[in-house]
Amino acid sequence: MIHLAYQDIRHTLSKFLVTAMGVGMLLGIVLIMIGVYRGMVDDARILLNDIQADLWIVQQDTLGPFAESSRLHQDTQDTLKSLDGIDKAAALTFQNLQLYNRQQQAIRVLAVGYDPAGDFQPVSPERLIQGRALRAQHYEMVVTDKTGFQLGEQIALGRDTYSVVGVTRGTVSSSGDPLIYISLKDAQNVQFSYSNPRIRSDRARGIGGQQTQLVNTVVATLRPGYTPVAVASEIETWKHFTTYTQSEQATILSRNVIERSSKQIGLFTAILVLVSGIIIGLIIYTMTLEKIKEISIMKLIGIPNRLVIKMIVQETLLLGAIAFVFGNFFAHLIYSQFPKRVVLLWNDSLALFSVILAASFLASLVGVYKVMKADPATAIGG
Amino acid sequence: METGGIRVNNLHKTFGQGENAVHVIQGASFEVKPGELAALIAPSGAGKSTLLMMIGCVLDPSSGEIWLGDTQVYQNRWLEKDTRTLRREKIGFIFQAHYLIPFLNVLDNVRLLPLANQEPLPQVEARARELLGYLGLEEKLHAMPSDLSGGQNQRVAIARALATRPQIILADEPTAALDIERAHSVVQLLRQIAKEQRVAIIMVTHDERLLSYCDKILKIVAGKVDTLPPPETTETFI
Ligand SMILES: Nc1ncnc2c1ncn2[C@@H]1O[C@H](COP(=O)(O)OP(=O)(O)O)[C@@H](O)[C@H]1O
Ligand SMILES: [Mg+2]
Questions:
Q1: Which one of A109, A186, A381, B174 is most buried, by most CB atoms within 10 A?
Q2: Is B48 in the pocket of ligand 1 (CB under 6 A)?
Q3: What's the CA gap between A50 and A45, in Å, rounded?
Q4: Atom of ligand 1 at shortest distance to CA of B172?
Q5: Is B17 in the pocket of ligand 1 (CB under 6 A)?
Q6: Among A8, A294, A300, whose Cβ lies nearest the Cβ of B93?
Q7: CA-nearest residue, atom 10 of ligand 1
Q8: Which residues of A touch B44 (CB under 8 A)?
Q9: Is A112 in the same domain as A231?
Q10: Chain A contacts of B91, Cβ < 8 Å?
Q11: Is the CB of B15 inside a 6 Å radius of any atom of ligand 1?
Q12: Count of pairs with CB atoms under 8 A, one residue in A, one in B
């Protein structure tokens, strides 16, 4: 049998390809959107994975330290260490800061403060691409490549100047800000020390001179044979803290930090898929209308509907498939240009492919309906 | 005994209803035998296409009887459930040149219907090539309709109509788009096909110069069909 769809497409090949390319770009955008979502989920887990704690101890009744602010005394770290079951414990701080590069452009970062001599080293050696982790207790900084700072660069922060001793690749916070690492003492100075006028006024009112050092969280690992849940409940019986296991912390992150943006992206993606479906439907509709005279003639001379419908459906599916290939190509071509991390997974791509095929098939029904309705008696006019 | 041909008895067609009713055909009766070329003539709007489409099982008549060969296909209603199968198997249609399928080449335009009829490919292939050769198109098998002249396309349309060996060929103004010389050669060809392939052909035409090739003239007068003999010469007949 003559392949009608093939012959028809061959006859209007360039038009067909341009159309498929247009739809493909739309699908490319959909893929990028999904990729942005994947990137967000991945990014949100980076800090958690790098820190690899069994327990996160935070201020009582808070969802700290990422989803809600949390303050603890630094000596909590030592209290915890004396506890049965706790192996290592370390205090950490997290704070959003604004740094300025040489062009005086503001760069928003999340600063992780940790003790360079402590039990936890959040700077993952796998991510370190230049230099080293922090060693001194003051004025050293590890930055991520995305900040644009170079190894050895001097950066002003607060009243001090820091030098970059290491560069990591691709470390960002759950909200997508690049990470920098400074020592816990520096971080505390930046976060909890007050400006000079405030200190003077506090002294005047007699409330100055606090020696207590604050941190945002204490992370801990367990000795073998202890379960996180058991130790967590023991810690919580003191009533001063709230404790999360690593997986609870991951859930808090995805539920409270990523969820809203992911819903937004999901909605966008759904709308885009819908729009793509409608556009494919419209294209098929006009493609069928353009051929309606030929279709009427075919029906008139006795070609069965089956053959005509097969042509329409095959053309639609092919349009969807080619658009999909273009879409993938397009997405892979441009995804690195996006400021946020875009993770393109073949699984997502395949899922989209089945959705698009289904949408194309539904769209072709519009054309099929036109074919069924076409009256052969109108094929010849006058 | 020879089968084929067309017989129509007391056929009626009314478009619209009530006050808007247009009685286009009102009791048409005539016959075209196998091997005959009949011309269907009437002023524009008199119902030539309407009549042809009813015989072609495309348009539903209002009432009457139609026989294709020995088979009665219409008796105030279609006697076959699927009129499209009737068309596909018994009738060849020829229209003006631009009714070819534009995205199929000459050979495929001719092969499409017999292949849709599930005739075996080698047979269809041989028949299509034979017909196109017969019509002087052996050089143009793989040309697209848009690359051919009006006369060439008209011959492709004839080849397409013949490809399924129909008993009946219905041609609606097949020469309208052609100059007079090509028109003459197309009608001569139809006559030759009628004789050689024993097909009954009804051809709508406006051009009385072509009537002398025909075996009979069917003239629509006031919704009925008068059957007239062909003119002796092209000059005397108006
Ligand atoms: N679908 C239709 N609905 C209403 N009137 C129609 C329809 N088709 C044809 N007619 C009318 O029937 C008459 C005959 O039309 P037609 O058979 O096309 O004439 P011809 O082919 O002889 O020029 C015309 O008056 C036309 O207006
Ligand atoms: Mg007409």
A1: B174
A2: yes
A3: 8
A4: 21
A5: no
A6: A300
A7: B15
A8: 382
A9: yes
A10: 302
A11: yes
A12: 68
pLDDT band for position B1 (50/70/90)? Answer: very low
> Quick check: A301 and B160 CB within 8 A?
yes
| A8 touching chain B per CB within 8 A | yes
| Contact residues on chain A for B172, CB-CB shorter than 8 A | 380
> Is the domain of A340 the same as that of A226?
no
Whether A8 sits inside 8 A of B112 (CB atoms) is no
Taking the centre of ligand 2 as the mean of its atom positions, its distance from the CA of residue A296, in whole angstroms, is 16
Residue-number span of the structural domain to which A345 is assigned: 4-43+260-381
Q: State whether the beta carbon of B46 lies less than 6 angstroms from ligand 1.
A: yes
- Whether residues A247 and A277 share a domain: the answer is no
Domain boundary among A222, A257, A292: A257
Q: Which residue of B has its CA nearest to A297?
A: B99
Boundary-marking domain end, from A202, A227, A257: A257
Q: In terms of domains, do A10 and A107 share one?
A: no
Residues of chain A positioned with their CB less than 8 A from the CB of B111: 2
Output the tens digit of pLDDT for each of chain A's 382 residues: 789 999 999 999 999 999 999 989 988 998 998 888 888 878 888 888 888 899 999 999 998 788 888 999 888 888 888 888 899 999 999 999 999 988 889 999 999 999 999 988 999 999 999 999 999 999 999 999 989 999 999 999 888 899 999 999 989 888 788 999 999 999 988 876 656 666 666 667 665 555 558 899 999 999 999 999 888 888 888 768 899 999 898 888 877 767 777 788 888 888 888 888 888 888 888 888 888 888 888 888 889 889 999 998 899 889 989 999 999 999 999 888 887 778 888 888 998 888 888 888 888 888 888 888 888 877 665 4
Give domain limits for chain B: 6-228
Model confidence, pTM: 0.74
3-state secondary structure chain B: CCCCCEEEEEEEEEECCHHHCEEEEEEEEEEECCCCEEEEECCCCCCHHHHHHHHCCCCCCCEEEEEECCEEEEECCECCCCHHHHHHHHEEEECCHHHCCCCCCHHHHHHHHHHHCCCCHHHHHHHHHHHHHHCCCHHHCCCCHHHCCHHHHHHHHHHHHHCCCCCEEEEECCCCCCCHHHHHHHHHHHHHHHHHHCCEEEEECCCHHHHHHCCEEEEEECCEEEEECCCCCCCCCC
**How many distinct structural domains can be found in chain A?**
2
Residues A247 and A292 in one domain: no
Please report which helix (H) or strand (E) contains residue A251, including its range.
helix A246-252
Span B126-176, pLDDT tens digits:
999 999 998 889 999 999 999 998 888 988 998 999 898 899 999 988 888
In CATH, what number does B6-228 get? 3.40.50.300
With CB atoms and an 8 Å threshold, state whether A304 touches B84. Answer: yes
> Residue A126 pairs with which residues in a beta bridge?
none
